Each structure stands twice: as structure tokens, then as C-alpha cells.
Amino acid sequence: MTLASLRRGYQVVRTLLHYGLDELLPPKLTPWYFKVLRLCLFWIRNRHQDKCGGERLKLALQQLGPVYIKFGQMLSTRRDLLSDNWAEQLTMLQDRVPPFDTALARAAIESELGTPIESLFDDFDDVPLASASIAQVHTARLKSNGAEVVLKVLRPGVEQQIAADLQLMLQVAARIEALLGHGNRLRPVEVVQDYEHTILGELNLKLEAMNAVRLRNNFLNSDALYIPLVYEELCHQRLMVMERIDGIPVADIAALKAQGTNFKLLAERGVELFFTQVFRDNFFHADMHPGNIFVSREHPDNPFYIGLDCGIMGSLSEEDKRYLAENFLAFFNRDYHRIAQLYVESGWVSADTDILAFEQAVKLVCEPMFNKPLNEISFGHVLLELFRTARRFDIVVQPQLVLLEKTLLYIEGLGRQLYPELDLWQTAKPFLEKWMTQQTGPKAMFKKLQSAAPYWSDKLPELPELVYDNLRLGRKLLGSQQQMLDRYLKHQQKAHKSNYLLITSAVFLICGTILFDREVTLVPALGCLAAGALLWLIGWRSRPKNRKF
DSSP letter string over 300-352? Predict the structure, then answer.
């Protein structure tokens, strides 16, 4: 490890101990070497004994920075894994991170714009509207049209801090992979690299602006999702300018109840939005924690979502989408044998996997989930059982599915908060059945032919010439192969002749050596030696030269 990584590693350990997180671990789950390490760091004391465990964890993650705050944001949606107190504390990480100095924010904005703020905006508010782990948001009004906007600017030095944390994670992952051996299928380095690609994408606000424009265009006429307008001409790598929206945070259940929101419709639309983004558009919002999602104040009986922060977006290959949809449908239909087959066909498990055993393992994990509302389903227990199944059947970790899995966790968390009675599977099943029909039916085949028609109409005039060129090339290749075969046969004939002469020469030389010891056979001995030498010389000179055929 580098000196910087060791220093950062010590900072992480010191922060965790400073907030007494080690004291929250059950003694039976604490290994002996951990206790030895804790004794070696005796000078670091818990200075927050008066605070509850959830608040300690929140403060520790907040102090460690963006990479760890993102982890806390994900945990805040897992009400099945955490108590309400812990989850509420971690929820504060989503938009209550302490802001940085406004002077630094102004300097960063003007540096990106290349002009003073007052030349483009009126009513710039020095008090941040929100402060997140990576960026800070200020409000203003455009001079050109008077529209209310928000300016999102990156925190100073955030790139360097994230780079140091990622370097430490990669080095730790490499050590873990070395301990596990090259045959392990968890691939921790690959997983960290995939996370690195994801979080580094959030550091480019120009890319986030492009993602928001694309997502907005996908749902322009939707009554389920609204993406604020982005002013692309004012967006740069460290600055993004977009329309200011007025909505209720999706986690503010009290405010949503007060306005009479239709929670059932809102929860169902959340599920439909997820599957629409994944399967229709193949472009899904992969950072759907509550801090990035608002609900409209208009028409509470017909509510829609407002999506923010498009820095992390995901997509799947067509093959993965098909396997995923078939897996979902097989799951809905309780066809566990088909699930096992799909895992083998997709390469997610090895081809020599015992299908029947794997089918039974999947059934044991998934069967208890049916006929239960979300508030009675323990996804934490299901995940634990799936991990055990992965170890038994050597399931391959799919990095391209990590974002999708995380998004599913967010959807589950939102579903718990909005409408615990939501039947997630019955909401998603009709959508997937319709999508599969569109992908495999006659209409799908016609659409594929129709989409390929311009390509083939462009290539069709070249077809006769391509056929003629390929036939001529085939004839030329056949001629070349025959010439190569002839040269090879001649080479082999020379080799056989040379070997025969050399072997014969060896026989004469041996006979001459034996006869040379006897005086009465001196002349025959010399004759054998001379013949052997002559044959050896001829055989040596007739050897074929090495060449490529």
C-alpha cells in the first residue's frame, strides 16, 4: 500500500473508533485479532457515548466523506435491516450534510461560467438550498427569462478525496482477492472498479446534465415522472443549472398524507417506472434514494414523481434484459426449474451445476415470499439465503447488474414507506408479460425487420459484387491450400529420404567401428566407415529447410 492509502486507512479506523462503533458489535461476532488491534489503539477513545448508535454511525459516515455517505444513503432505505431510529438518522445524510463556504461556491461557479454570477443570474441566494455529499445547491433567477433555477456545484477538493478512498478500497480488495485465490468468483477488485466507474460519473456534472436531458425526453408525456428542464448551455464539468421544482420529499410521509396523496397509485407507479426504464428504455435512474425523489403537489389524487440527480444511470445488454425478464416471469409463476435453467444459459452459474439441486435451493429461498405484503417480507433474510446459495453453487457476481440490484433495493425501501400493502409482484408481472410478448411475437419480428430495412436497402446493391468477390477469394484460397499441401508433401518426402540416409549411415559407422578392432577385417572396416561417412554427408545435405506453409 502507498503511504497515502495507509494514512487514509488509519483515518477511517480512527473515525470509527472515535464514534465508538466498535462497541456496537456483539462480542460473539468480534474475532480475537480485532480485539488485539483495538488494544493496540488504546489512545483512541469513544467521545460520543451520550449519542445513540444510529447517530454515531451517521456522524462517522458524514465525517469520512462522499464514498461512505453514499453507503449510508443506501442503508437508509433498508427498514427491514435497520430499526426506525437508525434509518431516520441515516436519512439525514441525504440532504443535511453541512454546507461549505459560500465564497468558495461563488468562486467555483464563476470559474466554470467564466463570468460573474450577476451577469447571468438575479437573486442568487448565498444560503444553500441543499448540501449533499458531493455537491451543493444554490437558488437564483435567470436574467434572460426570469425562470427560477438551481445551481449545483461540486464541493472543493471532492475529486481528490474520492480518489484517495477509491485507491484504498482497491488495495484492500486486491488483498482480499489474493487471500481468496485466483479461483474465487466474487471478484472484489472488479466490483470495486465497477463502483469506481459509477461514483466517478457523479463528479462530471456535464454528464449528469446529458443524462437528465435523455431521461426527461423518455418521459415527456408521462403522468408518472417529471424531470426538471436542464439549461445545457450553462452546464459544465463542475456546474449544472436546471429548473427549480416545488415538490414534497418522498420520505415526508406526514406532508404527503396531509395533502391527501393516493399512496397506492404512487407506489404502483414507482414499480412501473422502474420496469419501464429498465425494459422499455434500457436507461434507468440508479440512485433512487429518497433524497433524490420528490412528489408533485398538484393533483394529489393522481400524483407523479419528480426525479433529481441523474449522475448514476444504468443500462443492460439485450441478452441480460431478456434473461432478467424471463427470470422475473419464472419467479412470478413459481417455475424454479426455469430459473435454474436460465442461470446456466446466461452463464451466471457454471454449466456443470446440478440443476435439480439448484432448483430446490432457489425454491427454499423464494417460496416464502409469495402471498405476503411487503411489510411481512424479510428481504434481508432472503438476501442472506441467496448469498449462502451463491457460495454453494459458485454463482458468478455480475458487475453489470450491481446498479440494477441497488435500484431494486431503493424501490423496495420506497414501497415500504409509501404503501406497505403494495403487491410488488402483481404490479410488475403484467408489464413484464407484455414486454416479453413484444419482444418475441410477430409484431416484434416485423419491427426488427422494419428497423433493419434501411441497412439492408443500403447494402443490397453491393450484394452481387460481394458474392463474386467471395467466390473468387474462395477459389484463390483453394489454390493456395493446394500449393501449400504440395510443398508440405515434398518437404516430408525430403525429410524421410534424409532420415533414411542418416540412419543407414549410422548402421555403417557402427559396423565399421566394430570391425575396426579386428586386424583381418581392416579393409571391410574402412569401407564401412567410408560408406557411413559418405551417406551421412549426403543425408545431411539433403535435409529440407524449415519453412512456414
Answer: TTS--EEE---SSEE---HHHHHHHHHHHHHHHTT-HHHHHHHHHHHTSS-TT
Helices and strands (H and E) in the chain: how many: 20, 11
Determine phi and psi for 333, rounding to 5 degrees: -90, 5
Catalytic residue among 80, 165, 287, 309: 287
258 annotated as ligand-binding: no
Q: Which amino acid is at 153?
A: V
Annotation says 301 is catalytic:
no
Yes or no: say if 265 and 303 are a contact pair by the CB < 8 Å rule: yes
pTM of this prediction exceeds 0.85: no
Query: Do the beta carbons of residue 205 and residue 236 sit within 8 Å?
Result: yes
Is 135 annotated as a binding-site member? yes
Mean pLDDT per 10-residue segment, the chain (549 residues):
70 82 70 72 77 83 79 62 71 71 92 92 91 88 93 90 82 74 62 74 89 93 91 93 92 89 88 85 81 88 90 80 78 79 74 79 76 57 58 61 67 75 72 74 66 70 78 79 80 82 82 71 76 82 68
Angle at 318 between CA 316 and CA 319, to 5 degrees: 100
Rounded Cα distance between 322 and 241, Å, is 37
The beta strand positions in 289-410, using DSSP E, are 293-296, 305-307, 313-314
Residue matched to cell numbers 489474493: 178
Check the annotation: does 137 bind a ligand: yes
Asked if 300 and 263 count as a contact pair (C-beta separation under 8 A), the reply is no
Instruction: Write the burial class of residue 281 (CB in 10 Å: 0-12 exposed, 13-18 middle, 19+ buried).
Output: middle
Q: Which of 240, 253, 346 is nearest to 295 (CA)?
A: 253
| Burial of 113 per CB tally in 10 Å (0-12, 13-18, 19+) | middle
The annotation status of 130 as a binding-site residue, yes or no, is yes
SS3 153: strand
Under 8 Å CB-to-CB from 514, ≥6 apart: which residues? 525
- The 10 Å Cβ neighbour count of residue 381 is 14
Residue 349 assigned as binding residue: no
Integer Cα distance of 380 and 365 in angstroms: 11
Q: How many angstroms separate the CA atoms of 503 and 208, rounded?
A: 78
CA neighbor of 132 nearest in space, from 202, 51, 204: 202
- Cα-based angle 303, 306, 308 (whole degrees, multiple of 5): 165
Beta-ladder partners of 305: 225, 295
DSSP H or E run through 154: strand 148-154
Task: Specify whether the CB–CB gap between 183 and 87 falls below 8 A.
Answer: no
Specify whether the CB–CB gap between 342 and 323 falls below 8 A. yes
- What would the 3-class secondary structure string for 103-130 be? HHHHHHHHHHHCCCHHHCEECCCCCCCE
- Cβ-based neighbours of 362, under 8 Å, separated by 6 or more: 336, 339, 340, 389
